[in-house]
Amino acid sequence: MDFKIGDEIEGYGETEPKKKRSSFFSILVVIIVSLSVGFIVYFVCNALFVKKPPEPEPITRENLNLSEENVKILYNYVTYGTKGERNSKFLVEKNVTIDSFSNQEKYYYALQFVQQGDFENTGRTDSAGNKIYKLYSETIREYMQRFFGGSVSYTNDITMTYAFRFKMDGKNVGNITASADGDGLDVSFNGLEGPSPNPVKPYYGELVAAYKEPDGTYTLEEKVVYAEAKEEQGVYSIYIYGDPEKFNLIETKLNQTPETLQQNPISISQYLDRATTVTYHFAIFNNMLYFESSKITNN
Predict the structure, then answer these.
(1) What is the rounded CA–CA span in Å between residue 264 and residue 238?
(2) FRET pair for 175, CA 20 to 30 Å: which of 127, 151, 216, 259?
């Protein structure tokens, strides 16, 4: 076989670039692997040795003391009643919202905030000679919003008799009608009414829990039992129920007199485990808490 110098030179010239390319890729692989290992080591060390900031604690409802001022005020809102007996609204209706109230019921709860100084003497008198006082629309609106919030709607077209907490001219029962000028209510005090003489109340309740929710609203929980009394010649038979429908009879107390009831008054404390739960929710309007809803849960 003939050997040619040209052939030898040509063969050598083709082999050299291949070796360079192989060397370049080897170095590139080493760099990539080194970087990968470096990143892995960094992240592992960071996870093991770098202290992470603590996770923020989840916001939960706050358990309130039952003697807290707002709690007492709100509980008084919903347990209000004239003649010393609370209204049955929240104790017999399973679910209550602002839409559940009649126009007169809205006045019933809003007028609990009225004070003597809110009345203006009109200089007029009714047919019996009682002074007629004016309660202005602006004042009524303030008290409506205090109980029901900013979205409350009502009309001044109202006629009702209402026993206030205080006396005007020695009387506390007011006859309420819409003012002729449309700017409020006319009230003439024409009677005096005290607490109910009945020794047995129809409802016995006790506030058992109160919470401040994460959004600033309040929730109150009340336990309630329902009493039914049958009187004969001053002696009472009393039936204690755990539900507003009076299906769940808890206890029967026979041969009770006003004297024995005074000595051993009915107390809900012994019935808490079988009592109905009424849950009240209060929302916020203008930095004030107002009634939003309630619901009854039977045990």
Answers:
(1) 13
(2) 151
The whole-number pLDDT of residue 16 equals 53
Kindly report the average pLDDT of the chain as a whole number.
Answer: 88
Give the pLDDT of residue 196.
82
pLDDT tens readout for residues 188-223: 999 999 888 889 999 999 999 999 999 999 999 999
> How many CB atoms neighbour CB 224 within 10 A?
22
Q: Which pLDDT score, from 0 to 100, does residue 8 have?
A: 43
